């Protein structure tokens, strides 16, 4: 399992989960960093996978019971995306954004991951 690191895009994402939004690019690669936007019952998070690098770095995202996380994942390779605890899977096609809508029903910590290679994209903390 990858080590969770606190990088500036992650700090921005976590700090603004309940705010209007956050968007930037990764200064090292120029690739889009995560952006989270939304208030109320639906939040949006964008994640980019380049090789084995997840941007923003994997972190915990808080999601109140009854609310929805719209997760948009763009990968540079074909893969399978799986959201534990939400029983959702989606096929990732290289270069094409894929959206999963995760609605929080049961409290707990749930990982969202890919399978090839096995990467953790984030952990959803349903409270």
Structure description:
- This protein is mainly beta and 127 residues long.
- Helix content is 6%, strand content 46%.
- Residues 1-39 have low confidence and may be disordered.
- The protein has one helix at 8-15; strands at residues 36-37, 42-50, 53-55, 60-63, 68-75, 79-83, 88-92, 98-103, 108-115, 118-126.
- The protein has one helix and ten strands; from the N terminus they run αββββββββββ.
- The chain is globular.
- It has one domain: Immunoglobulin-like, CATH 2.60.40.420.
- The strands form two sheets. Strands 1, 2, 3, 5 and 8 form a five-stranded mixed beta sheet that branches. The protein has a five-stranded mixed beta sheet with strand order 4-10-9-6-7, with no helix packed on it.
- A hairpin with a 2-residue loop joins β9 (108-115) and β10.
List the helices and strands and how they pair.
Elements: H1 8-15, E1 36-37, E2 42-50, E3 53-55, E4 60-63, E5 68-75, E6 79-83, E7 88-92, E8 98-103, E9 108-115, E10 118-126
